[in-house]
Specification:
alpha+beta, 7-stranded antiparallel sheet, 3-stranded antiparallel sheet, 16 strands, 21% helix
Length: 317
Amino acid sequence: MPLIYEQCDGAIDIVEGGNEPALLADPTLNPTLSWLHQRGLHETVRRELAGSRIDVASPSYIQGNIALAKPLAGFADLSNLHPYPGMEHPETRGPGRLGGFRAAMVPVCGGVASLITETGYHTALATASAHLPVSEAIRARYMPRLLLFAYLAGMRRTYIYELRSSFGRGPADPESAFGLLTHEGRPTAAYRAVKTLIALFSGPRGPAAAPSPGPASPRPIATIGSHEDVQGQCFRRDDGTILLPLWLGVSGWDRGAQATRGPVSRQLRVECGDRRNALTMHRFDDEGGSRAASVPLEDGVGRIEVSDRLTVLEFAA
């Protein structure tokens, strides 16, 4: 560990325990081996890299393995999740819900904060796998929502699986269809959607800083109307701009027909406390892009439309 840390010039924030340890492969031995490995990793980091402030994340136990895992309290600074929603939408309350994955790890790690080291969607529509697919249009619609929803749920780090598809074995193979880039390196609509989101939160000053949530807004901003399924929260960008992402957390995928549903929308009234005359609205699309439009305001009040495609309101500094 000290050698790796030195070779990386200290650029390590988190080390992770075993990736998806196969506890079920040997229930009598493997849970103990995993526990011993995690204890050794944590003790080594604390002893050999005492001034590094590195967080030690737990192993990413999945599915039936979690029930066999031994308690890691004291040996994990972060609970490590792989919460794939499958074909469900990011905000689902069904089997793929984020809260369920987090709750399942509490007996293992206790009440420590969580991070996500794998999540995403695949588009292998011909697969026979139990990990069900969505269309590329729906993946582009869901990916920005997935990242924002995870952040609002307390996940300060979310790593997408994966940047580039591991294989190019055709439409029946999920491992050939998780990538934001195809196996050959071509950008997908989901790649463009994530890139668009990052660019919007980065702003004109270059690399994105860690956004500041909710209370950072220096002015009262309110949306008025039916908020059923509405997701959103204010963020302050590094240049002082306030961003308010809004969307409806509903499904856009017809599993039975394997078809993309058209977006559903709702009207809301927006009120800005400094009575400005206009704001900019960025509307995402299913191709991964977004279109900016000015929203006229009268004494700081106007009408907006939100849908299950992400909308981001931009209030200039």
